[in-house]
Write a structure and sequence with these properties.
The chain contains five helices and 18 strands. With about 280 residues, it is an alpha+beta fold. It has one domain: 2,3-Dihydroxybiphenyl 1,2-Dioxygenase, domain 1 (Roll), CATH 3.10.180. β3 and β4 form a beta hairpin. About 35% of the residues are buried. It binds fe (ii) ion. The site of fe (ii) ion has 6 residues, from β5 and β11.
Length: about 280
């Protein structure tokens, strides 16, 4: 069993969203996504996947406005379920709660569902195909977009009643809108990510440790798209888990390439990719 999200690999781990209607969003992540509530206050709600660690923070502030179209930011965050049975069970659950904006694809390396939260943030729910079955074109992972076999998955999941998101679920990858693919790639290369796949010159997929992708990036909101304003809802920041012993080298590389970052609490570092997506490295 491969593990592409272990502590020795740089990978995304947490998401923080700016939200307008905290109650409505909390209800969605509780009832539809089955995330576990960790903290609730008047302006902030924190969810966990495993019941212990923070995963998704929703925060609100007066003056937040809906994000405008054609900006950089979040395309989707993608939670990786422990098994195919869990994916089937999750589809059955979505049918039971009456969620009706479901999309799905078989990517060869993974099987994925796509949904939107009430404030239009994209969410992918997926399970991985074993790495031994992945195909490659030269040294790039081959990812396809084929119909998802809903019937088979729903059948597989029928004996596994959904009782909240399984505790071994993790943030598998994040997919971002950027303004310029090569500019973004150069930045993420500096941190330590490698290009593993491309899609018709409009999307790049990057990872560490040979995963099919920890980060996707695309220019589907337009080349040269601007970053959203401070008050626009959507992605506030995401976190990257960085092995402690590598942080120093990464900061040196960022310095050398002229990227700006700020030291935060206890060895945490805040930076932005060139498309304006904020990252907390910890
Ligand atoms: Fe994705």
């Amino acid at each position: 069993m491969y593990n592409f999200h272990n502590d020795g690999l740089i990978h995304p781990e947490e998401i923080v969203l700016k939200v307008i209607d905290l109650n409505k969003m909390t209800k969605f992540y509780d009832e539809v996504m089955g995330f576990k509530l960790l903290e609730v206050s008047a302006d902030k709600v924190v969810f966990s996947l495993d019941g212990k660690n923070k995963f998704l923070t929703l925060r609100t502030e007066s003056g937040f406005v809906p994000k405008s179209r054609g900006k950089t930011g979040l395309y989707h965050f993608a939670i990786l379920l422990p098994s195919r049975e869990d994916l089937g069970s999750f589809i059955n659950h979505l049918v039971n709660v009456g969620y009706d904006r479901l999309g799905g694809s078989n990517h060869g390396v993974s099987e994925a569902l796509y949904i939107q939260d009430p404030e239009d943030n994209g969410i992918e729910i997926y399970s991985d195909v074993d790495k031994d079955k992945w195909e490659y074109n030269d040294d790039h992972v081959k990812m396809v977009t084929e119909p998802l076999n809903y019937r088979q998955l729903m059948d597989l999941g029928k004996d596994k009643e959904f009782k909240g998101i399984p505790k071994d679920t993790i943030l598998g990858h994040i997919h971002l809108h950027v303004d310029d693919l090569d500019k973004a790639l150069k930045f993420y290369n500096t941190i330590g990510f490698n290009l593993v796949s491309t899609l018709a010159g409009s999307a790049y997929f990057i990872s560490t440790g040979g995963y099919h992708h920890h980060i996707g990036m695309n220019v589907w909101n337009g080349r040269g798209a601007k970053a959203p304003g401070e008050k626009e809802s959507g992605l506030d920041y995401y976190t990257l888990r960085v092995p402690k012993e590598r942080m120093g080298k990464i900061l040196e590389a960022l310095d050398e390439a002229g990227y700006i970052y700020e030291k935060h609490l206890e060895g945490e570092v805040i930076t932005k990719d060139p498309a304006g997506n904020t990252i907390l490295m910890k």
